[in-house]
Specification:
The complex is a heterodimer of chains A (509) and B (589). With 509 residues, chain A is mainly alpha-helical. Chain A is built from 22 helices and 3 strands. Chain A has helices at 12-28, 33-57, 90-110, 115-134, 138-147, 149-159, 164-192, 199-203, 209-226, 235-242, 245-255, 257-270, 272-298, 303-323, 327-358, 369-372, 374-387, 394-409, 411-436, 451-469, 471-492, 501-506, and strands at residues 5-7, 65-74, 79-85. In chain A, strands 1-2-3 form a 3-stranded mixed sheet. Chain B has 589 residues and is mainly alpha-helical. In chain B, the strands form 2 sheets. Chain B has a two-stranded antiparallel ribbon. A two-stranded antiparallel ribbon of chain B has the order 3-4. The chains are: A mainly alpha (509), B mainly alpha (589).
Chain lengths: 509, 589
């Protein structure tokens, strides 16, 4: 079989993935809280430094896996240590790396108890999430996938809000329930494909159509919960609301992206016929998520919960783009994941900043903050505008490409999704008004953004405009891989359905 | 720039994805150059004026940065060479409008008004955005040049929308027009503009009179190669424009807030422009846009001068007799009012007359109706404009003694821009004198012809004279009526209002459009979000199932646990029973 990857000269990816793990081990030996914080920061920054050559040396013209490393691990079971990245995974890597740094910074003062354990959990999570995005062996993938659960569970359960235990357990059970079905699917594939777990090999095999349906559903369970797609979303508001700021940032920024990444990496290339068959339902669930998530935002009284539900709406756009199965939809979907990571990550940072000062998240407790904290208000406005997809910000590019993709596949869904831009403006501006406008409460004193906080926010502000004005810089990395995905999807597409329920569902639109 | 030449500069590729590609690029042709004249001249005057008007405001720097951002966005809007960049500018001016309406955000009404403007516009942009997408899917490009040159080939194509075959070009035009209706405050998306008066007055002059609100007119004029191919779309534009012209004018008759009267007047005049576009007289629409920019900016800045002197009082019933305190403001205001009323020789006369004449020419049946609507609106325009003048500047002062003590003419930094604008309100129309009065007088029409074409239809000179005569008579009648109502017989307004109580209440309450939207849109959305979506679906249904499964497992395992009794005898019994069952199955099957 043709090898579709380029081996790396240096184990750069391994270094990136395992440096946080080593850092966590080092922190284990430390006592002083401040040196723990600094170590954590240096480690996450170090990961960033190591990753820079990857970005500059990445070959945008190929869909091959790059910077690959492949060693035999458990030969008896056909398990390899096999990692690499392509245009689809590269930005998730960078998003994780960036948000990890910011998570360390934002927890500098807000986490005062069990500092050591907190940073160990944070670093372990970075390793796990990076591992998920680079794994090219199913065993390795599943290992990282499940490994990520534990630090997140601990972050929510230990440093979370008053209802943290309920939220942590709910998060854990939801995700685990989905993952177990995926595990069954992996085992089935393993035996069908002749005892291999090589994802690249598995991606190029043709599976019988009926088998595709079942496997698609098994994987769907894991990914749909993670995204989360409607109606599997109810763990998200609880988890976000209770999680500490760093937890929310990682959760919104990268963890929920793993679901959509799974669709792109596994579901579509492995089970194209099933993906096509289920697409109308998935598209429908996506637009429901967009509209439903937006509506629910109107009714929120808790700031963090509102942002969490807005994630449901935004991730609806992502899955809508992905299941539109055309270039604009897929590229828009991938870009929108980055956008969402940046924007919602930033919004959770902003919420954390204000929570540190006011110790409340009830929207009704705010008001008039534009006068009290003008810098904070201005920055919040930038992210608000990005969230509602104003042109010039990154949110616009993603939403536009997705609606274009959805509309050209099925007008009905494109039109419904476009209502999301009205609703989005509605709830976000309403929120903005309640927090920042009108008169502040008597005697309320809140200090504006500090230096450390500004440092965490500046990279995200820069990304909002950079991705909004020069999206081609980012789309350039994605083109080749998306083209290959489309090719893979089209040649494997089994179009001989007896019952065209796509037509039936939408009346031909 | 020579005959019909256009300058195009492709700056860089903005978005590329598959076969979709769009650039940041500039197009300067005759249409955008007219827009440039309007935008840059009005904005520089407003900037100068604002130095005086905003003096001492806490947000002085913030004001000018927003205003500069607006001018940038507006220039981008008119200079874009493709639909997506147009959309960019379109949204960006919307953002500036939002920020500037809510400039004094500590006032709830200002914050509300800004939000309302943004969201109402998003309703229009919903259509606009889909229109842009449909343009790309139909023409494979978003560049004006490619789209317009391919328009003919797309004629007769249809798209399937919810099972109905719809003409593609018509659909595109109607979707774009949705955006135009939002931005240019046409019925039924007009509700945001009067509220937008919460913003500082220079903002009202620049954004909500002269430039941003005319973006919709610009959009339709820019897309004239598409609109001309769809009679359905053209009729829609004309009818919406004509209706809005009358609708808003009637509301303007009875309002007491000085800025709101001018705001409704703006809505009404924008309706005029759409009426012109809808009958195919694109250059007449742009001509009116251009003259309107001067006299309407002047009216707003003049009212700002009044408000400044009145210490932020905006109720005209509390003004009166200001002309002796503010002679410059009064004189310039008078010129603007005469101009908007269509008194011969002034700017407004020429552009309005052109529109009336083109409406008249549009056809025996519908054209006459449009013409009559426009003529009725012209009467009301003259009436409310002079009602405003008489209530504000004539008669005796009706405010408090404290206010009277403070009355003063504004400083030169404010009055000089007024005077310059007054020159515009006087003379801006001289570039478009009808050929009937002066051969080759319609220079702006000829200048724009390479982009906008010549309007169809020729009429008799006698008819044109008649239309012009009627328009002048109607204007004079409107002014005369205002004189009678507000100078001669001061008790007449009161008596008329009580005689036609229901009509007056309806107009005074702006046909209850806000209340209607609140009832059928805003509060249902909020209620539904809370009760149906969050309360029922999320809270009961999904969470019920989610929490139901663990509790089911819990009770199931409690049942199982009962079997673990710890008694050897019961275990032995179960084992025996199990063996019997297995044996039984073995024998029977």
């Amino acid at each position: 079989m043709q090898e579709i990857y380029y081996l790396s000269e240096y184990p750069l990816l391994s270094a990136i993935v395992f440096l946080p793990l080593i850092g966590a081990a080092a922190i284990l030996l430390m006592r002083d809280a401040n040196s723990i914080r600094w170590t954590s920061l240096v480690v996450t920054l170090g990961v960033m430094v190591i990753s820079l050559p990857i970005l500059s040396g990445f070959d945008k013209t190929t869909y091959f896996m790059q910077y690959a490393e492949k060693y035999e691990w458990i030969p008896a079971w056909g398990i390899n240590y096999f990692i690499g990245i392509d245009g689809i995974s590269i930005f998730f890597l960078f998003l994780t790396i960036l948000l990890s740094i910011l998570s360390v910074l934002v927890s500098w003062k807000s986490v005062e108890t069990k500092v050591k354990e907190f940073h160990i959990a944070l670093l372990l999570m970075e390793t796990a999430v990076l591992g998920v995005f680079v794994s090219l062996d199913f065993f390795l993938f599943y290992l990282f996938w499940e490994m990520m659960l534990i630090p997140m569970f601990i972050l929510i359960g230990v440093w979370g809000g008053p209802n943290r235990v309920y939220a942590a357990v709910k998060f854990f059970l939801f995700t685990l329930a989905g993952s177990v079905l995926m595990l069954v699917g992996i085992v089935v594939i393993y035996f069908y494909a002749g005892r291999t777990l090589n994802i690249l090999t598995l991606n190029s095999i043709d599976y019988p159509v009926i088998m595709q349906y079942w496997l698609f559903l098994a994987f769907f369970a894991a990914f749909a919960v993670k995204v989360p797609m409607f109606p599997f979303h109810t763990w998200l508001p609880d988890a976000h609301t209770e999680a500490p700021t760093a937890g929310s940032v990682m959760l919104a920024g990268v963890l929920i992206k793993m679901g959509a990444y799974g669709f792109l990496r596994f579901s579509i290339p492995m089970f194209p016929a099933a993906a096509e068959f289920f697409a109308p339902v998935l598209l429908l669930l996506s637009v429901i998520a967009i509209i439903y998530g937006a509506f629910v935002c109107f009714a929120q009284k808790d700031l963090k919960r509102l942002i969490a539900y807005s994630s449901v709406s935004h991730m609806g756009f992502v899955t809508l783009g992905i299941f539109a199965f055309n270039t604009q939809g897929l590229e828009g979907g991938i870009l929108q994941m980055l956008n969402h990571g940046v924007i919602t990550g930033a919004l959770f940072l902003m919420v954390g900043i204000i929570y540190e000062r006011t110790h409340t998240r009830q929207i009704a407790d705010y008001g008039g903050f534009a006068r009290l904290v003008p810098w904070y208000a201005g920055i919040f406005m930038v992210f608000t505008l990005a969230a509602i997809g104003l042109p010039g910000t990154n949110g616009f590019i993603g939403e536009f490409l997705i609606i274009l993709g959805a509309f050209s596949r099925q007008k009905f869904f494109g039109i419904l999704a476009a209502t999301g831009i009205i609703l989005g403006a509605g709830y976000m501006l309403r929120l903005y008004q309640k927090i920042f406008f009108e008169a502040p409460r008597e005697g309320l004193f809140v200090s504006d953004i500090g230096m450390r906080e500004a440092l965490t926010l500046i990279p995200l502000i820069a990304l909002v405009f950079w991705m909004g004005m020069f999206p081609n810089v980012f789309l350039g990395y994605i083109h080749a891989s998306v083209q290959h995905l489309m090719y893979r999807y089209e040649i494997n597409l089994n179009t001989g359905f007896a019952f065209d329920y796509l037509q039936w569902l939408t009346g031909g639109n | 720039m020579r005959d019909g030449d256009a300058i195009r500069i492709d700056i860089y590729r903005w978005i590329v994805s598959g076969n979709f590609s769009v650039s940041i690029g500039i197009l300067i042709d005759r249409l955008s150059s007219v827009m440039l004249i309007v935008v840059t001249s009005i904005s520089s005057l407003v900037f100068i004026y604002s130095i005086g008007y905003m003096h001492g405001d806490k947000g002085y720097a913030r004001f000018f940065s927003y205003l500069s951002l607006f001018v940038f966005s507006m220039l981008m809007l008119v200079l874009a060479d493709n639909f997506l960049l147009l959309y960019f500018g379109w949204e960006a001016v919307g953002l500036c409008s939002y920020l500037l309406i809510g400039f004094w955000f500590e006032k709830k009404s200002a914050a509300d008004a800004g939000k309302k403007a943004f969201i109402v516009n998003r309703f229009g942009d919903f259509g606009f955005g889909l229109g842009v997408i449909l343009i790309f899917l139909t023409f494979g490009s978003l560049e004006y040049m490619k789209v317009f040159s391919g328009a003919g080939a797309a004629l007769g194509q249809t798209v399937n929308i919810f099972g109905h075959e719809v003409d593609t070009i018509t659909l595109i035009c109607l979707l774009l027009f949705c955006g135009a209706m939002g931005k240019s405050a046409q019925v039924p998306l007009h509700v945001w503009l009067p509220d937008a008066m919460e913003g500082p007055t220079p903002v009202s002059a620049l954004i909500h009179a002269a430039t941003m609100v005319t973006a919709g007119v610009y959009l339709v004029a820019r897309c004239n190669p598409l609109f001309s191919l769809s009679s359905t779309a053209m009729t829609t534009v004309a009818v919406v424009g004509g209706t809005t012209a009358v609708f808003a004018a009637t509301i303007g008759l009875v309002q007491n807030d000085i800025k709101r009267v001018i705001a409704y007047s703006t809505v009404s005049q924008l309706g005029y422009m759409f009426l012109a576009l809808g009958v195919g007289a694109y250059s007449a629409g742009i001509f009116h846009l251009y003259t309107h920019a001067y006299f309407k900016a002047l009216l707003f800045l003049g009212s700002g001068s009044v408000i400044h002197a009145m210490n932020n009082e905006m109720n005209m019933q509390k003004m009166g007799g200001l002309k002796k305190y503010m002679p410059v403001t009064y004189a310039t205001f008078m010129i603007a009012s005469l101009s908007i009323s269509g008194i011969p020789g002034l700017a407004g006369f020429f552009s309005k007359d052109e529109i009336l004449w083109r409406a008249y020419l549009a056809g025996e049946g519908s054209g006459r109706i449009l013409w009559m609507l426009a003529t009725a609106a012209a009467f009301m325009t003259a009436f409310y404009s002079f009602r405003l003048i008489f209530l504000t500047f004539h008669g005796s002062f009706r405010g408090s003694a404290e206010q009277e003590h403070h009355l003063h003419e504004s400083p030169a930094v404010m009055t000089v821009p007024l005077m310059i604008l007054a020159v515009g309100a006087l003379a801006a129309g001289w570039v478009g004198i009808p050929p009937l009065l002066l051969e080759h007088g319609d220079r702006i029409g000829e200048f724009l012809a390479p982009v906008l074409g010549h309007p169809a239809g020729e009429g008799l000179h006698s008819e044109e004279m008649m239309v012009m005569g009627v328009s002048v008579l109607v204007s004079l009648a409107g002014i005369l009526a205002a004189v009678i109502f507000y100078i001669k017989k001061r008790d007449l307004p009161e008596r008329t209002a009580s005689a036609f109580k229901p009509v007056y209440t309806m107009l005074y309450n702006k046909y209850w459009a806000d209340e209607l939207y609140e009832k059928i849109l805003v509060s249902p959305v909020l209620r539904m979000s809370d009760k149906v979506f969050l309360g029922f679906f999320d809270g009961r249904l999904i969470e019920g199932i989610v929490n139901g499964i663990p509790s089911f497992i819990g009770s199931f395992s409690r049942g199982l646990r009962k079997m673990q009794t710890g008694l050897i005898s019961s275990y032995a019994f179960m084992m025996a029973a199990g063996m019997l069952i297995i044996l039984g199955m073995f024998f029977f099957f």
